[in-house]
Design brief:
The structure is a single chain. By secondary structure, the protein is α+β, with helices and mostly antiparallel strands. The protein has 2 domains: 153 residues, Jelly Rolls (Sandwich); 38 residues, no CATH class. The strands form 2 sheets. The protein has a 5-stranded antiparallel sheet with strand order 1-2-9-4-7, with no helix packed on it. Strand 5 and strand 6 form a beta hairpin. The protein is globular, with a radius of gyration of 21 Å. 22% of the residues are buried. The structure holds 2-acetamido-2-deoxy-beta-D-glucopyranose. 2-acetamido-2-deoxy-beta-D-glucopyranose binds next to loops.
Length: 215
Amino acid sequence: MARGLCLIVVLALSVIAAHAADHSPLQDFCVADMNGQVRVNGFACKTPSSVQANDFYFGGMHIMGNTSNALGSSVTPAFVFQVPGLNTLGISLARLDFAPRGVIPPHTHPRATEILTVLEGQLEVGFVTSNPENRHISKILNKGDVFVFPVNLVHYQRNVGSSYAVAMVALSSQNPGVIAVASAVFGSNPDISTDILSKAFQVSDDVITDLQLKF
Ligand SMILES: *[C@@H]1O[C@H](CO)[C@@H](O)[C@H](O)[C@H]1NC(C)=O
């Protein structure tokens, strides 16, 4: 009985500690040991003496992403997977490239607020607040403009200029995660039942089947 209670207390404390770790490092750094066998929230730390400058480095942000795809956009991440030194630091970066009219479709980041700045071109950006208002807040941005997407909210970006556009975004997680609305709903594996989606979207089963085939 006492042991059971003790286990519950330990579990409760470990949840609190895990939650705080992303934002409150307990040491100078905890460079991710990607090959480590220990499973923790994030990655286990490399031995500090084996840490190198390259653990804190990413050299690819000057390279334009390949936007030859259906969306006309590309994301180049510098997350913990690219920069192991980000482990436990609660921050990361990404480069966004857009062909003319290119779109990053509606999506959310389950673990991060995002702040964006336009380096080249003109973007239309927006996010939608939660139920029941579902207020759509959007703006046209030009070079040098900054815009914030609050954590968890559905948001998008689109190039509304006539040439390529580039933006940099910073995110408040080493591993922000992404849930693209269309592919999560219509491209899940296995599929969500067609009749659930036809009720949810108030369209016929055929329309849903069509959408499911696209994702
Ligand atoms: C860009 O992506 C397309 C589609 O995947 C591919 O065919 C093309 O070779 C890529 N271009 C470059 C420069 O990598």
